Amino acid sequence: MNLPILLPPAELRTARLLLRPWRPSDLEPFAALNADPSVMEHFPAILSRAESDRLAAASDDAIARQGWGRWALELQETGEFIGFTGLHRPAFEAPFLPAVEIAWRLSRRSWGHGYATEAATAALDFAFDRLGLEEVVSFTATVNTRSSAVMERLGMIHDSVGDFDHPVLPPGHRLRRHVLYRLTASHWRDRRPTSSGHPGPGR
């Protein structure tokens, strides 16, 4: 894979959403999100406040260091923090890695409004147009059909040969088997969604 370039910390805007660096005020609602069993149904466990804060800090550190990452997600109309969406380099070992993944995690009350697809569209525009990536991947547990549906709405292609057992989960764990989706820059440009806004200039 081609290596992503480094940029100043970016903010992305869509018609309804702002993808931005993290703020201290995000930590409490993020901890509530990560402690919600509905949100965390397809993760190994809910997160403690300390674990949630570490994830937020790591996400913000990546944005500060390289200009992009898992951005905090905010509703433009109200300023409400609703989760994160963005780009990440997975650290575990798998045949399809190294790669950059598109990922999201939204509060339960924000489901059903198309926010994940809208935010991910902006992040993918950034990945291909600003970072010059040739491919972005995404993956989730086979039982997480909600996230798989978002991947398909984005035009990602299921790579059934690449489906894998997540190495951090033990054999027999209900979430161990994962599906792998891929999206190339050329395919994205051929079918780029037009229903959502596009990212504004980074700053």
What does this structure look like?
The protein has a single domain (12-190), classed as Aminopeptidase (3-Layer(aba) Sandwich), CATH 3.40.630.30. The longest helix is centred in the N-terminal third of the chain and has 18 residues, at 49-66. Strands 1-2-3-4-5 form a five-stranded antiparallel β-sheet, sandwiched between helices. Strands 6, 7, 8 and 9 form a four-stranded antiparallel β-sheet that branches. It is globular, with a radius of gyration of 16 Å. The chain has five helices and nine strands, in the order ββααβββαβαβββα. The two termini are 26 Å apart. It is an alpha+beta fold and 203 residues long.
Gist?
Pfam families: Acetyltransf_3 (PF13302). The protein has 203 residues and is of the alpha+beta class.
How much of the residues is beta strand, in percent?
Answer: 15-25%
- Helix-strand category: alpha+beta
Architecture in CATH? Answer: 3-Layer(aba) Sandwich
Helix content: 25-40%
- Low-confidence segments, given as residue ranges, are 195-203
Q: Strands of the largest sheet, in order across it?
A: 1-2-3-4-5
Give Rg in angstroms: 16 Å
Q: Name the CATH homologous superfamily.
A: Gcn5-related N-acetyltransferase (GNAT)
Average per-residue pLDDT, rounded, comes to: 92
Report the count of strand segments.
Answer: 9
Number of helices: 5
Number of domains: 1
**H/E series:** EEHHEEEHEHEEEH
Can you summarize the main beta sheet? 5 strands, antiparallel
End-to-end Cα distance: 26 Å
- The outline comes out as globular
CATH topology: Aminopeptidase
CATH class: Alpha Beta
Protein name: Protein N-acetyltransferase, RimJ/RimL family
Pfam family, one: Acetyltransf_3
Keywords: Transferase
Domain N-acetyltransferase: 17-186
